[in-house]
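Backbones bend. Shown next:

***
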Amino acid sequence: MKLESYREQLGGVVGNLHSLEFVLRAFLQQLPSARPFGLPHGTDIYNSPVGTELPENELTNYDSLNVLIERFNKEMALRGLQGVDPSIVDLRDALAHGRVSAASPESHLRLLKFDRPINGRVRVTFNAELDEAWFKDQTKRTYQAIELVAKQLNTPIAP
């Protein structure tokens, strides 16, 4: 895989992860248990300068992707429906905190992630060859998760 293709493919997966987080937050905001949105309709938060204070809600809270998926999956279990594969968090964490390199200029890039050290030793927690097939699988996997959550947006919630 050429470096240009790597960047393009990586951008697709990362973009899907961003979209997944947003659609999870939108879904959670519509639940009766959600914090009030707390902003007047039509407020443009995208023009809020750094330092602006906004009310905490499902869009603005500090929940990690892992917590968002857990909360979504809990709601889906109550509805008897399938949730999002929580191992998507491992993919996101590897992309955010892993190391990308190749054994030689002719080799495919590899993504490695290591756990926190214990007694001077680390454990490999992620190891993937970054070829076209891997990127295609991850792009498809993350897009399917987006679709799964999006189908639940504005779905009536049983009392």
